[in-house]
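I'm stuck. Please check this protein.
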Amino acid sequence: MNPFKQKRDLLAALREMKDGDKVISCPECQAKHTKDVLLENLYVCPCCGYHFRISAKYRLRTVLDPKSFREICGSMKGKNPLDFPGYEEKLLNQQQKTGMKEAVLTGTGKISGYKVVVCAMDSRFMMASMGTAVGEKITRACEYAAKNRLPLIIFAASGGARMQEGILSLFQMAKTAAAVARHGEEGNLFISVLTHPTTGGVTASFASLGDVILAEPGALIGFAGPRVIEQTIGQELPEGFQSAEYLLEHGFVDQVVPRTDLRQTLAFLLQVHDRRGKR
């Protein structure tokens, strides 16, 4: 599937959801569903399995035990370190539109009783681009998990570095990768969950460093876009080469897990890690 067409179709579908229309068409198979049907199926098309994008808060509700989430660094938000024209206004607009301070939600919670530290990126907020605030929130979450010897789960979704913060946004790649490394030095578990899309500096840093790397079906995962790569190397690329399924075949991810099975899969991994630590 053409990822650019998929994105346009998906945005149209999400606008329908926001406007409260009774019927939502699946961008993949064109089947029509009510919002209630999609909600019952975690916004996965029951006909073809297409995964709609979801907010960070909703994603955490799908995997965490009820009422177990406690936010970390909830007041932290991005600034304008380079005085980029119009950036402060754009941040304010995104905050009002999404109800989030920044593009990632971090905190603690429980999955089947196992306490974890979680980070969930939200593509509604400037395509979850990684600026200084996003990098700092993820780094602090890693440090909290390391200090308290807790498993870390990060749900990645990003368009890459945040251009309005220039080189400062690129620094976050090294900072988050180092924080993940320190978390793992004592045998702490890090599960990386790649959702649609996970690209750019996020893919090239912490998202690819999980002890276990999971991905949602159909997720676009890569560093540069297909057109950029084709123009750079002068070669035609295989169909769907940046899809979760293609990357699974080539050993980049460990398992492609439907959203409806993700909570159970995470609980199993946490149980295995817990038993291993008690030996």
Remarks:
- Residues 17-52 form one domain.
